[in-house]
Amino acid sequence: MRIGLVGVGRIGAFHAATLKGLPSVDQVVVTDADVSRAELVAKDLGVEFAPSVAALLASGIDGFVIAAATSAHAELIAAGVAAGIPTFCEKPLATDLADSQRVVELVEASDVPVHIGFQRRFDAGYQAAAAQVRSGELGFIHHIRANTNDAFPPPAEYIPTSGGFFRDCTVHDFDIIRYVTGREVVSVFATGANRGESFFGQYGDVDAAAGLLTLDDNTFVSVSGTRYNAAGHDVRMEILGSLGSIAIGLDEHTALRSVESGVAFPGGQAHATFMDRFRPSYVAELTAFTEVVSGQREVPCTVRDALQAFRIADACELSRRENRVVALEEIGR
């Protein structure tokens, strides 16, 4: 199997190395808007290089992986669909809701499988939680707490193209909430603040945020996050049910310390980045994509799944800006 990849920044180079190591992948071909960078990554990894996206798509690849800048996602997905090549794209579909909806319409009008990269769906903890929730083992779920705390902020130049905190960061929480519960969000109330570097506020963004989501079965979900969590990269979820409560991400690497006397847990090294926290999940995710390419499985995270997560993020941003509860039905489908 030949897999082509566009975008060899941090996550793209990581994906290229992961793909090269998969038993089902015979060759990886990479390209990038920065041709010299793509050539360097190809040389370092011992994979093929293509001088352009057009050349990549014409090089006989079986699958197409998009890890380019968000602003290029919609166009690149369309190119993959036009070429009839099964496509994997990092979230999000596009930079705004209207373009995201157009991508969904394009993909759903075709027979080309398109898999969107929300890697938490492939984390063993979240998968086990989903099984327990859906089996009824926990009884009815009354509260969920989810957090995404980055150890350090991204560079200032990233913020204008990030889409904002909810679309860039907590959108992962929004997707995994839908995955674990099998429910839909019906309303949100969100807030945020800029307490660190001023460049967040300069671009209308925040570096800390929180939201209360109500699901369609009246489960309450609190979501919080920050760009400043020096203790380490901290992604967790607590699910509280009438018959039991469970946690995901609560292990020796959790970026917390207890001040209770005699308590040594957690005692391990905290994760520094999301790539540390979810390394096995990324491998499982790309393995799943190769199975999609070979026709062994259905797409595990569809463009419509990505659209729903984006709608929740848009609702939270609108709520933050207008300081009110926002119903999801207000946000275009």
TrEMBL record:
The keyword Oxidoreductase applies. The keyword Glycosyltransferase does not apply. Keywords: Oxidoreductase. It comes from the Bacteria. InterPro entries: Gfo/Idh/MocA-like_OxRdtase_N, GFO_IDH_MocA-like_dom, NAD(P)-bd_dom_sf. Pfam families: GFO_IDH_MocA, GFO_IDH_MocA_C3. Residues 126-246 form the GFO/IDH/MocA-like oxidoreductase domain. GO terms for molecular function: nucleotide binding; oxidoreductase activity. Residues 1-118 form the Gfo/Idh/MocA-like oxidoreductase N-terminal domain. Belongs to the Gfo/Idh/MocA family. PANTHER family: BINDING ROSSMANN FOLD OXIDOREDUCTASE, PUTATIVE (AFU_ORTHOLOGUE AFUA_2G10240)-RELATED (PTHR42840:SF3), NAD(P)-BINDING ROSSMANN-FOLD SUPERFAMILY PROTEIN-RELATED (PTHR42840). This is Myo-inositol 2-dehydrogenase/D-chiro-inositol 1-dehydrogenase.
